[in-house]
Amino acid sequence: MKTASTFRELEPEGPRVRVRFAGRDLLLREGGNLAAELLAAGVTPFRRTPVSGAPRAPFCMMGACFDCLVEIDGVTRQACMCEVGPGMEIAMPFAERDGDA
Amino acid sequence: MRDADLVILGAGPAGMAAARTAAEAGLVVVLLDEQPRAGGQIYRDVERAGERRAAILGADYLKGADLVRDLPHPNIRHLAGATAWQVEEGRRVAFTLDGEAELVEGRRLLIATGALERPMPIPGWTLPGVMTAGAAQILLKQSGMVCEGAVLAGCGPLLYLVAAQMCRAGTPPLALVETQTAADRLAALRHIGGALRGWRALAKGLGLLAELRRAGVRRYTGASDLAVEGGAQAQALRFTAGGRAHRIACSTVLLHHGVVPNTQVARSIGVPHRWDDAQRAFVPERDPWGRAAGLEGVFIAGDGGGIGGAGAAALAGRLAALAVACDLGRLSPGERDRAARPLRAALSRELAVRPFLDRAYPPFAGALRPGDDTLICRCEEVTAGDIRRYASIGCLGPNQTKAFGRVGMGPCQGRYCGLTVTELLADANGRSQDETGYYRIRPPLKPVTLGELAALAASQSKETAE
C-alpha cells in the first residue's frame, strides 16, 4: 500500500493536514492536488479494477483516464481533480463489494 | 440559468485568448474550466510558478502568464472548477460547480478543450508507475514534483522537453527510449522548408537535445518491442534497439508519442469529423474561423480542432472570437477581416513546422497495432486480440465493439482506447479509418451525482416559480 516514493517535492514547505487513505494516516500539503500528494506520500495502488482486480494508479493527471479513482467521504472521485482538505477519509473504491464501473 | 453571448469550454490558450478578444469587442463571456486555475494543461498553474519552477519549466511556459494576467475583465465570468457534462441543443451547457449542477446558455459556443495524449498501448502500460509524459509535466507545473529514476519512452519533441526539465530539476531520466527511426528522419527532410520557416521550434528542439547530451542522458532511437515489466508496480522497461534486446530497471515509465484532439464535446453534439492522415487522428470539420460544420453557432479552436500547439491555439481562439463578435453585430465583416489578417499570418508561421514534426516523429507503430495480448481498453480490460476477434466475426465499427465486449464503456468513455479501436478495426477489415468511424459519444461527458442533479432541479423549479 505504501512504499518509498520516487516522487520528490521541490518545495515541501507549507501547511500539512491529516487525511486517511485506506485506514492509514497521511500528512499532505493542504490545498495540493490530491493525486499528486498521494503519490508523494508513496501511496500505490490507488484502486483495483472492478473487472480483474488489477492495481492502478494515476496515469494522465488531467481528469481523462479515471485510473486515479478513489472514494472520498463515500463518493467516488478522480483524485487528480480534487484538492487536499483536512480530515478527508479516502478509501479504495470497489474495495469490499462487487462493483460496476 | 445563466446566459451569455459566448460560452467557452476550456481555459487553455485558445479559451483564454478567445475570452479576452470577445470581451474587448463587448461580448459577455462565460468561461468554464475544470481546473481551479486558468492555463489549461500547457500553462497549468503558470501564475503560481515561483522562481525555481520557472527556471525548470522554461520561457515558453512562462509566456502563458500573459494570457492568464489578461483574463480578468468586467465582461468575462471565469468559472473555475466547473465540470461540463452535457451540451444540449448546440449551445446550452450543463456543468457542475461546487457540488451543484447548473445550466448556462450562450448565443454562441466555443469548444476549446485541447488535446489528450495519444493512447500508447504497450504490454504493461496499465501498471502503477506508468504515466504519460504529460502527467509528469502536470506534476511539475502544478505540484512542483519530480520523479527520480524514470525512463521516458516514445517519441516527439515533448519527450525532449520533459527530459530537459527533469535534468534542470536535478532528477535526470535514466534513459530516453525513442521509437522514431533514421528513415523517419530522412523522410522528414522533405518538409525541411516548413521547418526552417518555423525555425524557432526547430532551434528549441536542437537546444534541448544539446542540453540532454551535456547532462549525459542515454538515448536509444529506433526502439521497438516496448514492454513494461512488473506485477504490483512497474519494474523495468524492455525494448529492442540497434538489433539488441535491452532492459532498464525503473519504477516509473513515462510514455508519449504525440497528442491528439480531445473531441468528446464536439462529437457529443454531432460535429462531423474526418481522419487526418498526417496527424493520424480524427479532426472536427471547421471553416477557417473555427466554425463547426453542420451546426449553428458552434466554434472549435485550439488543439481540439487539430494539433498546432499553444501558440497556434491562442491565435485560433482570437480568430474564433472575432467571428463570433461579427456574427453578433459587434464588428463589421471589414473590421473582423482587418483584425484577422495579422493573426492568420502568425498562425501560418506557427503551423509551418508541423509537417516536419509529424513526419519526423510518427506514432510508434507497435502501439498503433499492438500484439493480441496487449490491453487496449484500460477501463474494461479488453485486449487488441479481442478487437481482432470481434472483427473476424463481422464487427465493422467501434460502436459495435461495445456490444461485443463493453469496449469504451468504462468511466473514461473511450478517451484512451477510441483511436486504437478505430485503427485495429480498420486494419482487420481492410477499410479506411473514415469508413470505420469512431464511438458515438453520449452525455454525461463526466460523471455527475444524483445529488448534483437534484440541486439543478431545485434551482430550475425556483426559477419557474419566480
Architecture overview:
The complex is a heterodimer of chains A (101) and B (466). Chain A has one helix spanning 34-40, and strands at 7-9, 16-21, 24-29, 47-48, 55-56, 69-72, 75-78, 89-91. Chain A is mainly beta and 101 residues long. In chain A, strand 6 and strand 7 (75-78) form a beta hairpin. The longest helix of chain A is centred in the middle third of the chain and has 7 residues, at 34-40. Chain A is globular and about 40 Å long. Chain B has 19 helices and 22 strands. The longest helix of chain B has 19 residues, at 333-351. In chain B, the strands form six sheets. In chain B, strands 1, 2, 3, 4, 5, 6 and 20 form a seven-stranded mixed β-sheet that branches. A five-stranded parallel β-sheet of chain B has the order 8-16-10-11-12. A three-stranded antiparallel β-sheet of chain B has the order 13-14-15, with no helix packed on it. Chain A binds chain B through residues 3, 6-11, 32-33, 36-37, 39-40, 44-46, 49, 51-52, 54-67, 69, 75-76, 81, 83, 101, and chain B through 34, 36, 41, 50, 52-53, 56, 83, 116-117, 126-132, 134-135, 138-139, 142-150, 169, 171, 232-233, 251-252, 262, 378-381, 410-412, 415-416, 446-447, 449.
Brief synopsis:
The complex is a heterodimer of chains A (101) and B (466). Helices cover 7% and strands 30% of the residues of chain A.
Reconstruct the topology from this structure.
The complex is a heterodimer of chains A (101) and B (466).
Chain A: E1 7-9, E2 16-21, E3 24-29, H1 34-40, E4 47-48, E5 55-56, E6 69-72, E7 75-78, E8 89-91
Parallel strand pairs in A: 2-8
Antiparallel strand pairs in A: 2-3, 4-5, 6-7, 6-8
Chain B: E1 2-9, H1 13-24, E2 29-33, H2 51-57, H3 59-62, H4 64-69, E3 76-80, E4 83-88, E5 92-97, E6 100-111, E7 115-117, E8 130-132, H5 133-143, E9 145-147, E10 150-154, H6 157-168, E11 175-178, H7 182-188, H8 192-197, H9 199-215, E12 218-220, E13 224-230, E14 234-241, E15 244-249, E16 252-256, E17 259-261, H10 264-268, E18 273-276, E19 281-284, E20 298-300, H11 310-327, H12 333-351, H13 354-360, H14 365-368, E21 375-377, E22 382-383, H15 384-392, H16 398-405, H17 418-429, H18 433-436, H19 450-465
Parallel strand pairs in B: 1-2, 1-6, 2-3, 6-20, 8-16, 10-11, 10-16, 11-12
Antiparallel strand pairs in B: 4-5, 5-6, 7-17, 13-14, 14-15, 18-19, 21-22
Helix pairs in contact in B: 1-11, 6-9, 7-13, 11-12, 15-17
